[in-house]
Amino acid sequence: MEFKHLVEAAEKWCSGNPFDLIFAEEDDERRLDFYAEPGVSFYVLCPGGTDSFHVWSESEDCLPFLQLAQDYISSCGKKTLLEVLEKVFTSFRPLLGLPDIEDDSFEHYHADMEGEPGPDHQQMGVSQQ
């Protein structure tokens, strides 16, 4: 994919989340740099030819969170830039102060299970007279 198309895809992706594309360079390496408050930053090296994407951060606080995305990239199959960026976003949710996606759906399910049964639900083994 041409680098300008990768930049356009990255800018579009940024419109739906807290990250901004702060730098795009094609001369030495095909690199896209992203930043979000509070100091969450990473960059993506885009493939040229048969290489795959690579994600990294120069921030020691951010590096451990990128492991999920790095594992995803190294797994079988070619990945698109948007797939890689979504995996990075998922990895950084705790640093951004956002709920974890899995926790969010679990809490919703758990909230549905709590509380008193509604009037159309009988409790098993309890006769109400």
UniProtKB/TrEMBL annotation:
GO terms for cellular component: cytoplasm. InterPro entries: Maturin (IPR027892). Residues 107-129 are annotated as: Disordered. Keywords: Cytoplasm, Developmental protein. GO terms for biological process: positive regulation of megakaryocyte differentiation; regulation of signaling. Its main location: cytoplasm. Coiled coil: none annotated. It holds the Pfam family DUF4581. It is found in: Cytoplasm. The keyword Hydrolase does not apply. It comes from the Eukaryota. PANTHER family: MATURIN. Belongs to the MTURN family. This is Maturin. It comes from Channa striata (Snakehead murrel). The lineage of its organism: Eukaryota, Metazoa, Chordata, Craniata, Vertebrata.
